[in-house]
Structure formats: structure tokens, C-alpha cells
């Protein structure tokens, strides 16, 4: 498996398995399947309510913990130093591990400065091998990166062929922050799986639309975490290291970039209010 070096020297697999929208009931089975076919990086979050399933799978897999790379995220309802600190301990309990390999702030709302201080403390205590953020647009990333002690190693953001994050990636690189893609298949939006350009390119290499899309991001050094509950798709999503897209194909794919979210904008005041109000009504832990 190809790896990328994070800004603290830690090596992270460039391709992992994501469990967003995998139900708690299915999660253990899905992660065990993913590990059985060769995945060694798993991405979860407090808000996915399936950290325990990931922890159970890790325990049952028999794979040494130091051969795995586990990511989780602190949710908005746990924002602030004290709540974040307690939630990190709870995540480790659910994951049945003394540490996570990557710990992220899930959303740029609430007291995320306090959250990040708790994460820096966890990093120094060896409870997180690397720390970073998720869904931070360039302005918020720059603000945090300029003020914190430990620069974010990763920013997990919506990244796919229709929202390629090319300029934000350049800004992140100024701080040594890696782009990590959520939604690399755009969740099928914009007729992703039948896109004619991706299909035509795929036919040249004997690859699917999904494989071409993943390969495009990987060649840009974007970390990808495709999700599937089907073992055969997990295998297909891993089978992207035996070919390289030509420069011509890479350039052609850039023409698909719409440079905007297909889901929601974290800079839209109404979206911000909706998300914060939603969190006020519930607690993750």
C-alpha cells in the first residue's frame, strides 16, 4: 500500500476504508471484511456511532495494532477543552486502543480552539499519533494553523472530481497539511458512475469509473477513504495501484471541477445555524 508522510513524519496509507453511514450493526462485519482484503486504514467518528464496531473488528482481526492506522473525529457537541478531553478518552475506550493514529476536529463550529488544545494534549501524551481537522475551509484552516502549536496534519474535506479542492490544497500545503477526501465518489451525485469522460478514460486502462476517480485523487497525493458494505467493491476500490493516468487524462478530469460543494456549504450562515442547533438537541456521548 502506498503511503504519504504527514507533517510530523508519520506514514499514513493513502487509501483506507471509511465507515460513514455504515450502521452500528453492520460496522464490525464490514471492517473485518475490509481488513481481510488488505485495508489497514479505517476512518470513523464519534458522530457515526460505530466506533465500537471498529474496535470490535480490530480486536477480532488478530492484526497487530501497530500495523493499523485508525482515524476518529471529535463531534461538535463535544467541542471545548473539557468535553473534548473526555470524549477522546471515550473514543479510545470504544476503539479498544490506547491511542488513535489520527484525531480530527469533525466540524469548524463551537469552541474548536478548546477542542484543538485537548487534541494537542492528547498528541503529547501519545494518545494520538497525529492531529488535524475536517471540513475546515481555507480561511478557518489558516486561522487555526497560524494560532496553534501543532500544525494540522490533515484536513478531511469533500473532495471528488466535481469538487477537486485544487486551490485549497495549495493553501493547505503551506502548512504541511494533507488533503483527505470524504465522498470520493460524490455519493453518486451528478450521475457520477455513468460519467462519459470517466468511462472513456477507464476503458483505456480496463478500469471502472470509481477506480479512475480514486486514481486521479491518489496521483494528486490526496488521501482517500472510499466506503462500501460489499466485499467485492472493497476489493475493486483497492485495485488502483497497477496503473497510472496520463498527464492528458489528468488534465481532462480537471475540466469536471465545479469548485463547489454538492452537499452543503460550511460558509452558508443558514447551514451553520442548522448544524449548531441540531447539535444543541443531542449529545454524542
From TrEMBL:
<dbReference type="InterPro" id="IPR020471">
    <property type="entry name" value="AKR"/>
</dbReference>
<dbReference type="InterPro" id="IPR023210">
    <property type="entry name" value="NADP_OxRdtase_dom"/>
</dbReference>
<feature type="domain" description="NADP-dependent oxidoreductase">
    <location>
        <begin position="21"/>
        <end position="256"/>
    </location>
</feature>
<dbReference type="Pfam" id="PF00248">
    <property type="entry name" value="Aldo_ket_red"/>
</dbReference>
<keyword id="KW-0521">NADP</keyword>
<dbReference type="InterPro" id="IPR018170">
    <property type="entry name" value="Aldo/ket_reductase_CS"/>
</dbReference>
<protein>
    <submittedName>
        <fullName>Diketogulonate reductase-like aldo/keto reductase</fullName>
    </submittedName>
</protein>
<comment type="similarity">
    <text>Belongs to the aldo/keto reductase family.</text>
</comment>
<keyword id="KW-0560">Oxidoreductase</keyword>
<dbReference type="InterPro" id="IPR036812">
    <property type="entry name" value="NAD(P)_OxRdtase_dom_sf"/>
</dbReference>
Amino acid at each position: 500500500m502506498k503511503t504519504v508522510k504527514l507533517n510530523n513524519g508519520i506514514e499514513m496509507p493513502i487509501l483506507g476504508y471509511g465507515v460513514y453511514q455504515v450502521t452500528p450493526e453492520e460496522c464490525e462485519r464490514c471492517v473485518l471484511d475490509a481488513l481481510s482484503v488488505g485495508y489497514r486504514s479505517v476512518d470513523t467518528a464519534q458522530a457515526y456511532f460505530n466506533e465500537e464496531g471498529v474496535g470490535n473488528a480490530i480486536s477480532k482481526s488478530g492484526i497487530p495494532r501497530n500495523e493499523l492506522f485508525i482515524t476518529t473525529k471529535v463531534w461538535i457537541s463535544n467541542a471545548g477543552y473539557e468535553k473534548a478531553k473526555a470524549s477522546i478518552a471515550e473514543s479510545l475506550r470504544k476503539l479498544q486502543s490506547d491511542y488513535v493514529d489520527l484525531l480530527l476536529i469533525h466540524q469548524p463550529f463551537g469552541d474548536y480552539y478548546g477542542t484543538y488544545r485537548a487534541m494537542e494534549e492528547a498528541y503529547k501524551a501519545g494518545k494520538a499519533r497525529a492531529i488535524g481537522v475536517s471540513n475546515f475551509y481555507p480561511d478557518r484552516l489558516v486561522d487555526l494553523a497560524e494560532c496553534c502549536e501543532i500544525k494540522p496534519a490533515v484536513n478531511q474535506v469533500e473532495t471528488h472530481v466535481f469538487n477537486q479542492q485544487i486551490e485549497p490544497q495549495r493553501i493547505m500545503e503551506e502548512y504541511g497539511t494533507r488533503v483527505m477526501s470524504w465522498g470520493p465518489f460524490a455519493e453518486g451525485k451528478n450521475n457520477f458512475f455513468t460519467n462519459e469522460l470517466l468511462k472513456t478514460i477507464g476503458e483505456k486502462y480496463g478500469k471502472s469509473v470509481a477506480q479512475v476517480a480514486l486514481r486521479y485523487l491518489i496521483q494528486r497525493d490526496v488521501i482517500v477513504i472510499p466506503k462500501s458494505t460489499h466485499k467485492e467493491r472493497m476489493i475493486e476500490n483497492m485495485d488502483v495501484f497497477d496503473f497510472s493516468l496520463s498527464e492528458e487524462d489528468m488534465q481532462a478530469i480537471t475540466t469536471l471541477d465545479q469548485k463547489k460543494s454538492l452537499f452543503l456549504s460550511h460558509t452558508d450562515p443558514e447551514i451553520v445555524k442548522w448544524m449548531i442547533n441540531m447539535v444543541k438537541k443531542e449529545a454524542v456521548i
